[in-house]
Design a protein that fits this description.
Elements (H helix, E strand, L loop, with lengths): L1 H26 L16 H6 L1 H4 L3 E14 L2 E7 L4 E7 H4 L1 H9 L5 E10 L5 E12 L15 H6 L1 H7 L1 H23 L3 E2 L5 E2 L11 E4 L4 E5 L4 H9 L4 E9 L11 E10 L3 H20 L3 E4 L2 E4 L4 E4 H9 L9 H10 L10 H13 L7 E7 L8 E2 L2 E12 L2 E8 L4 H18 L9 H9 L4 E7 H9 L18
Parallel strand pairs: 3-5, 6-10, 14-15
Antiparallel strand pairs: 1-2, 1-4, 2-3, 4-5, 7-9, 8-9, 10-11, 11-19, 12-13, 15-17, 16-17, 17-18, 18-19
Length: 494
Amino acid sequence: MGANNNVETNSTNELQVRKDKLAALVAAGKNPFEITKYDVTAKSGQIFADFDNLEGKTVRIAGRIVSRRIMGKASFMHLLDGDGKIQCYVKRDDVGEDVYADFKKWDVGDIIGLEGFVFKTQTGEISVHAQKLLLLSKSLLPLPEKFHGLTNTDLRYRQRYVDLIVNPEVKDTFVKRSLILKEIRNYLDSKGFLEVDTPILTPFEIGATARPFVTHHNTLDMDMYLRIETELYLKRLIVGGMERVYEVGRIFRNEGMDTKHNPEFTTIELYQAYTDYKGMMDLVEELYKLLAEKVCGSLDIMYQGTEIHMGNWERLTMAEAVKKYAGCDYYEWESDEDARACAKKMHVEVPADATKGTVLIELFDAYVEEKLIQPTFIYDYPVENSPLAKKKPDEPAFTERFEYFINAMEFGNAFSELNDPIDQKERFERQVALKRAQEPDTTAQVDYDYVTALEYGLAPTGGLGFGIDRLVMLLTDSASIRDVLLFPTMKPQD
């Protein structure tokens, strides 16, 4: 406890010292917070990349002091800008005695502007020789200790702004996240998809299992719900004749939190008329291969110590997967009772009235998912857990649905979309009735307007949804979803 108090005391003392320095600057008419702009002509990355052309030329750079070495009449420091760190040489005779005196009072963490010429030191380090210096912003709090960095993960997530300063690899993750989104959009746009926006606030809770966040609209005097998916609005657009649409959407679910789940997260949902779930399967495989090449430079990537071969995707029905990994053959069960007996033999608990489809799902969860390390499509899901997917014409106990798994983690979900309004209405009503039976206080309703949309006619459609955050985790080798969210949800500190 004493050590923590000591750290807090040191931080408090440092804050006061820096406030006193700021007060002295203001009193001297040098308030850095009054400066509104600084014309930057080069960044560190550009200087390193184009040194041969920039050597000896004057540049104006700006950034944060992250280290420095005062040596009497001359000093070295490192400046951190948006591209990275660059060494700067500051000599009293070049910048002037008064400016140099001010410079020596500045602190690590301060943001400055520097004008000077590009050169290479005797040790061969590309640097900028300062001729003019200007303090642009005063840092009142010290950065974490130079050699220890910011390693406390809880503090890193709470103070991402500090994390980004002292841990350069963190910024790389978010640069890759931006690249991933850009490449996904480029790919879908090239396929003729149109990016759209649909409502985040919805008028009622739908019957899905995900629990929503509730808010209140004062003018309309009605509760509203943050969306748990973008699906139903996007399919309305397919009804309206927009044949290929997608949305990069923020989704909100009032549920648990762990290394794979955050209450708000980003998904992409896309819908394409006149194709089916097999068409979506081909799209996923092509897109993920492209992303691996673009972001990681190879189809073989490492994730948490496991090599993932993104160029090789296995395709198994759920029944085939359960037979392969659990040794249970769905097609040998002649009745629901046979299925329940098999579950008991495999030590898997199922409801007393479980159907063959329900048992298959439970066996999959218990025995299969953890084995799906390499990219695998699992398709043909039982109708029991697929309320929005079209039934297989030749096997109505199954639906034309798939999910895909990598490193024992589910990454996305796709359907041949149900476009029969009568069937859809019945499934919705059963879903809501079940939810009301399980949660008597629920406000879940059937989305009858969506049923009305289907009554106008939805073309045969393939639909796909996948999480951006898990995809970024995979392509940046990040262990937790919090590592790929700039500001993950955190419990407030006292």
